[in-house]
Amino acid sequence: MSSFPRAARLLAVLALAGSGAALPSVAEAVPTSAVAAATGATAVQPRVVPGTVLVPAASVQRRRAAIVFDKNYRRPFHSRVIWRSCTRTGAKAPWRLAEEVSWRAGSGTGPRGTDGCVRNEGWLPHGDYTFVQQDRRDGNFIDGRVFQLENKRCRNGTLRQSLFIHSEQTVTNGQCRDAPGDQRCRWEVPAYNDYRSAGCIKMSPGDLAALTRRFHRYYDAGVRYPAGVVKVRVTG
Fold first, then answer.
1. Measuring CA to CA, which residue among 40, 67, 66, 42 is closest to residue 56?
2. What pLDDT is attached to residue 185?
3. How far apart are CA 162 and CA 200, in angstroms?
4. Minimal CB count within 10 Å: which of 64, 108, 124, 126?
5. At 140, is the pLDDT very low, low, confident or very high (cuts 50, 70, 90)?
6. In a 3-state reduction of DSSP, which class is residue 107?
7. Residue 59 CB-density burial (10 A; 0-12 exposed, 13-18 middle, 19+ buried)
8. Are strands 144-149 and 131-137 parallel, antiparallel or unpaired?
9. From residue 149, how far is each of 114, 170, 200 by CA, in Å?
10. Residue 87 has pLDDT above 80, yes or no
11. Is the pLDDT score of 197 beyond 70?
């Protein structure tokens, strides 16, 4: 568990309240005292609608972050995932880069692996994504730590679904027993190219854990934050 105060990791609800725009659904309501502690705003009692959070208009968003997938067209399985965290001291202050770290990643498979409009084969379409992070996903094919991205339509309108940043590991983020063939719950590079993915973004278990630790310094699992607070950006 991060040593940072919980309030500091719940800045997700701050950005849109002052404009009057509706906030995206989140997993939990944030106590007004937590918001005030994170921002220095005067604590008030906002009206809370189920599934959303309203915060004081005086709140100032002081941190934002992005997980960037930077495509490598010549070597798709040597693309990069980049964590960027920025801070500012006040509403009119400029954003400044606080941390940037990158890791190897891959996406796509087969001869059409670099076409973002090909379902279950091409890598992710360009653009910004909201997401929900999970620490112990129990799925049919993808388990353990994941960042589950929103659906996205590519340039020709094809809807891409079931988009994740993930690895090959067990529900508890371990490695299953070695066995003949390519195991979906065991990272086997270089014997097998486990950076290959049917449309998702793949990282090694250790690199995915490092990314997740940085995310959890400020943000919680199970919450869909506004893209203005933290997002995945696919570019290249």
1. 42
2. 75
3. 8
4. 126
5. confident
6. strand
7. buried
8. antiparallel
9. 19, 20, 9
10. yes
11. yes
Could you tell me if 23 and 54 are in contact, meaning their C-beta atoms sit under 8 angstroms apart?
yes
Residue reference for tokens 């001291």: 89
H helix and E strand count, the chain: 2, 11
Is the Cβ–Cβ distance between 186 and 178 less than 8 Å?
yes
Measured between its terminal Cα atoms, the distance across the chain in Å is 33
Q: Among all chains, which residue has been given the structure tokens 């106590």?
A: 31
If one compares 92 and 33, the residue with the highest pLDDT of the two is 92
| Percent of the chain scoring above 70 in pLDDT | 75
Chain centroid to Cα 19, Å, comes to 25
Query: How does residue 59 score in pLDDT terms, banded at 50, 70 and 90?
Result: confident
Residue 176 — very low, low, confident or very high, per pLDDT cuts 50/70/90?
confident
Residue whose C-alpha is closest to residue 195's, from 85, 65, 69, 101? 69
pLDDT of residue 202: 96
Say what the pLDDT of residue 187 is. 83
Please spell the DSSP secondary structure of 50-106, one letter per residue: TT-----TT----EEEEEEEE--SSSGGGEEEEEEEEE-SSTTSPPEEEEEEEEEEE
Both tokens of residue 206? 């250790």
**Which domains are delineated in the chain?**
1-61 (no CATH), 63-235 (2.40.440.10)
